[in-house]
Amino acid sequence: MWQLLPIALACLTPTVNAHGGVLSYLINGKSYTGWSPYNTPTGQSTIQRPWATYDPITTATSANIACNDDGTSGAGQLTAAGVPAGSKITAYWNSVWPHNTGPMLTYLAKCPGSTCTGVSAKTLQWFKIDQAGLVSGTVATGTWAAGQMINNNNSWTSTIPASVPSGNYLIRFETIALHSLPAQFYPECAQIEITGGGSRAPLASELVTFPGGYGSSDPGITVDLYGNTAKTMTSYPIPGPPLYGSGGSFLQGNPVPTSAPPTGTGAPPPPPPPPPPPPAGTVPQYGQCGGIGYSGPTGCISPYRCVKSNDYYSQCLA
Ligand SMILES: *[C@@H]1O[C@H](CO)[C@@H](O)[C@H](O)[C@H]1NC(C)=O
Ligand SMILES: [Cu+2]
């Protein structure tokens, strides 16, 4: 009981449904009702994967983090057929969604065969097609994508990239609520068949498994909205892999560091030069201070140092 208490208190609100999930979809103009977690599974036939509870997932590495369930399809599982690449998909959360601080994220995972039915979500590799985090202001008092979701009829719309190859996919919509720690994950999945797609498969660097895509100490998951740092922190590191396509633009000719070794030489690349001592900067702890495509300030406030997470993201850490 003692372990449950903080979670229960953190989400106590005057309404009964302090939590929830994705209840329906609008896909390329067509409405689809989702799974009803509090009805009997018997007879339910939806494009959405079954899910069990309105309660949040509070462990980043939870076995249920893929689709808020054990990863299996329903007995009457359906698929939204003929969804053209490039079309829009809207996911509707229950109204009124109670958590307005946190990011919105949308992922796809391709199923190996001719259908996703019967395929465990845990066996798939996911790539992120849409993300939004802190929209404006500071981490302490700013506007978040989750707030935009609420203002937009408790819904989030993502576009299937036209370059995604045709095939059968799970689409995973997620909001992460940061009003209390541990962070609360609300992911649900649906089955779609993408048609008329392109030829740009996700790169290995863009793919993650769930569980696996998030770590319990990821800065975007452990961020404290109420600490002093949050009052001046104006950038927020969205969890998960780099966005689909971001690696591709790198390969297609964005500037490569001139010190990059030629590929295919067999010799191991020389170690990167040690970073210069950081200037006294303006970027707060966990804020972004570097990465391909980033053009903002690069100096961390004392005593934090700019640490590379990947080619696209460096952040200020202790
Ligand atoms: C708002 O969302 C509900 C589903 O929760 C949907 O039925 C309704 O059509 C939406 N309204 C608008 C104006 O899009
Ligand atoms: Cu809640």
Structure, explained:
With 318 residues, this protein is mainly beta. Mean pLDDT is 86; it is low at 1-16, 248-270 and 273-279. It has a five-stranded mixed β-sheet. It has helices spanning 5-10, 145-151, 219-222, 246-251; strands at residues 22-27, 30-33, 80-84, 88-93, 104-110, 126-132, 134-136, 143-144, 155-159, 167-177, 184-195, 288-290, 305-310, 313-317. It is built from four helices and 14 strands. Helix content is 7%, strand content 26%. A hairpin with a 6-residue loop joins strand 10 and strand 11 (184-195). The longest helix is centred in the middle third of the chain and has 7 residues, at 145-151. It binds 2-acetamido-2-deoxy-beta-D-glucopyranose and copper (II) ion. Copper (II) ion (CU) binds next to loops. Copper (II) ion is lined by residues 11, 18-19, 56, 98-99.
